Model the fold of this input.
Amino acid sequence: MIKNFFDKAKNSHTWKENLVNLTTQLLNYLIILIIALFIGAVVMFLSGKDPIAAYAALWQGAFGNGYRFADTLDRSVIMILAGIAGSIAFRTNITNLGLEGQLYIGAFAAAWAGFTFTNLPAIVHIPLCMIAGIIGGALWTLPVLYLKMRWKIPELVPTLMLNYIAIRLTDYLIAFPFRDPAAPMAGSPLIAASAKLPKLIKGSTINIGFIIAIVLIFVTYWFLFKTKIGYELRMVGLNQDFAAAAGLPVKRSIFLAMTLSGGVIGLGGALMIQGFFGRFLGGFSSGYGWDGFMIAIIAQNHPFAVFPTALFYGALANGALTMQSVTGVPQAVVAMVKGTLVLFVTVKVFVENIRKGLRKWAM
Amino acid sequence: MKKVRFLVLGLLIVVLALSACTPQAAEEPVVEEPAVEEPVVEEPVVEEPEVEEVEEPVVEETEEEVVAEPPKIALVPAGRVGKEGYMFLAGQGYKMAAADFGFEERILESEVAEEWERNVRTAAQDGYEFIIGVGSTMADGIVNVSQEFPDAKFALVDANPGGDNVMGLIALEHEGSFLAGALAAMMTTETSLEGINEEKIIGFVGGMEVPSVVRWFSGFEQGAKYIDPDVEVKISYVGSFNDPAKSKELALAMFNEQGVDILMSVAGGPGDAGVFEAVEETGLYGIGADISWDDAVPGHVLTSVLKKTDVMIYETIASYIAGEFQPGEALFGVASGAMDLTDMSAMGDAIPQEVKDKIDEIKAMITSGEIVVERPQ
Done:
């Protein structure tokens, strides 16, 4: 029975089965996307705006020229990292609702390393700040892990609560101990030039953070699906009791998944500070931790699916700005489209029907 | 048969992946899917972008024709111009300039700190030659983008971020509040007005002790002392720009316990509302700032010190079009008309004509340089 369970988890299907599955998924996402965009269009139409012009402007803003495309890629970086952070936790069946808080702590740690050390060469300073971000994000998960390991308190509420603590804590840090009176709004001092990420294209915001994000996708895939530890993580995620019965290190896996998740989103915070803001700003994140949550759900916790999803999110974020300034359609419409996507992906209305239909037709 | 059907499935995947992407991104999705087996499948992939390429140059040509004489000037507010107040005025000034000088409007608004820089950048990428930011909070964005686009010119309302191609448009709030201080000092002895006591005490409620509020207060105090050095100016800071309850409490304390009969409020929109509630409850008098509060409590708001962001932006655009762009601080005080009092019509006849004349006289003296209002710090 145990053997059966593990075999099933290994996804040892034939290539035909895989093809059907892949087509099912793509068709499913296409249908959901069309529905989401359609609902957005209906709302725009009802409020007296031209949905076609709005979507055209959205497209222009996201991919209209080389700069826009590069900026969209840049915006998707934090989405990729947030999505991966979510995926690692969810794969292990840990509901890490604390991504937003871990993002703030990681970003602050990176900024701190950035403005505290001023005489380092870039080759040392850049990774140092990133490591600070990773450690910051990972450390912020430790209280939750302690509660979970020691008293078996589910991580759901503590992770959520720590978000608010993290945001307020960083607000305090930049309002008093690390306040830069010259900052235009509540913020830390500027990080040293040696800590800033080199840009890839002048005039755009895209920087080497994008390359790091792409590499991280492959590393995560390799880790989750090709290593023993990753396998243990996934098994614990599928069924914790079963994995324990089979002698897998459940506690270690949970610990690892949680800290890795926090570390990845912490790195995301570091990339935002080093690549874009140049200093820690209070309330800098427009809900990227929550976006990561949604992206992981839409991507069904697969690192390769995280990339197109995050790119889509980045395009929506970037395009919505242009859409709003050109056509006057508020950015909130985009939030609605995103919400609809998540809803339909979660309730899985179409997947089974499509799969049955395809099987019947092709086999 | 089955093989053919699987081929069709594979094709479908490629088409789906393609349809979800731009021509630019056409190479990427192909890498993702291991399912493509036959080389036949890839042919349409190569063809598609070629078709697109034929269309693109046509679009560009028409664009080049359209690009004509008028300058490209964009407005990037750190907020929304649809709201009343400071941003609204900024939008008005920009729109008026666009109508008068015949350039096309482009306003890129956002309330999110991250998007301020992105909006400035978008405008610069789109070839806008003069980009005007509104709000000191977006200074970082202007600095970053202005360094990467040295050929474009930038201006920022309310702060001077520095740079060879950047203007800082600074309002001299202290000149405007000097007028208000003078008015308050004259009116605090005007006991014919209901509620005014004999004591020469006036008050000031500030949001937070930040440079701009300090400027407001300093001018107010200087104006009062100019009229009568014996006038006492009480001050208290709320500690926030959006705490109506605490603002009201402080205002009530000043009115009821410290003998203040005229109170100027620079406590931020919500905070000001709290102060004027106190004015209404006590039946005493207030002075507004930034925008007109004259109608908030009819008959009890002596005047408001207007900070006319619209004038600042209009003048800046006018001088840019005249070819007079100059990096560094540009100061807008009473002389430029950017700082002014309301016409006090909401008070009816309650303010004596000689007081109004005196204010006009002071205004003229500030304009001519006879009175120099000191700028703190």
Notes: Chain A touches chain B through 43 residues (CB under 8 Å).
